[in-house]
């Protein structure tokens, strides 16, 4: 099965850890590429490359501000990821329910001793 290109598939784009770091950083607001590179310890060309990929899949938008280009998170692009992971919500809820029952059992045993 052929793998989707990184520049057209959100899942492939966010598979790269540095791109996820960029998205996390941009949650706090828009930033120029130099600031993204400095904050995350990347080279500016490396940060630019990752920002281009994120822009092409719709996770980042940019705008010119004087001589700078500012990048901002466009979380609407994460909708497909959210919808997919939401399918596992029942699994996690059941796991947390079992964990809660176990903790309650340990508390009861601790009180009886």
Automatic annotation (TrEMBL):
Specify the HTH arsR-type domain's residue ranges. Answer: 1-93
Instruction: Give a single Pfam family match.
Output: HTH_20
InterPro entries noted in UniProt: ArsR-like_HTH, HTH_ArsR_DNA-bd_dom, WH-like_DNA-bd_sf, WH_DNA-bd_sf
PROSITE patterns xref list: HTH_ARSR_2 (PS50987)
PANTHER family the UniProt entry points to? SLL0088 PROTEIN (PTHR38600:SF2), TRANSCRIPTIONAL REGULATORY PROTEIN (PTHR38600)
Task: Kindly provide the name given to this protein in its UniProt entry.
Answer: Metalloregulator ArsR/SmtB family transcription factor
> Which organism does this record belong to?
Streptomyces durmitorensis
């Amino acid at each position: 099965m052929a793998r989707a290109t990184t520049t057209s598939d959100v899942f492939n784009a966010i598979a790269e850890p540095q791109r996820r770091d960029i998205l996390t950083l941009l949650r706090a607001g828009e930033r120029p590429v130099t600031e993204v590179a400095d904050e995350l310890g990347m080279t500016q060309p490396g940060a630019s490359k990752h920002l281009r990929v994120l822009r092409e899949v719709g996770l980042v938008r940019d705008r010119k501000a004087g001589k700078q280009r500012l990048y901002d998170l466009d979380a609407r692009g994460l909708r497909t990821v959210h919808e997919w992971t939401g399918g596992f919500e029942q699994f996690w809820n059941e796991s947390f329910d079992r964990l809660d029952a176990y903790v309650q059992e340990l508390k009861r045993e601790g009180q009886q001793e």
